[in-house]
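hey m, so remember when u said the tokens were messed up on ur end? i reran from scratch. heres the input so u can diff it against urs
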Amino acid sequence: MSSSVAIVQARAASRCERACNAACENTTKSQASALSDDTILAIARRAGMQAVLDGLIGRERYHSVTGSLSSLQRFVADMYNLMLDGSLRRRAALSALALPVGEGPSSHSD
């Protein structure tokens, strides 16, 4: 591999890592907990990953999730499609609520 190709790949990986870090930093607890732990674990298992309960301290459960790179890719694809599906549903709901111009409550004069 030439050095210029390696540099381009390193820059692309760096951009991807920065984007992922930014997305993680901007994710609030309420956004992160939109799916239950059991749902996330079920998606991981469906993707071919193994989820093991490592421990239980009080009400907090600790899991380890392992698998191949291809199962991780399937998990990411499933999560992406789930988020995209939710985004499309929200957009459809918002567009169904949108009133045509001039039809809103402020357009009526007394």
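this time it looks ok to me. The longest strand covers residues 50-57. if urs says something different then somethings off w ur setup not the seq
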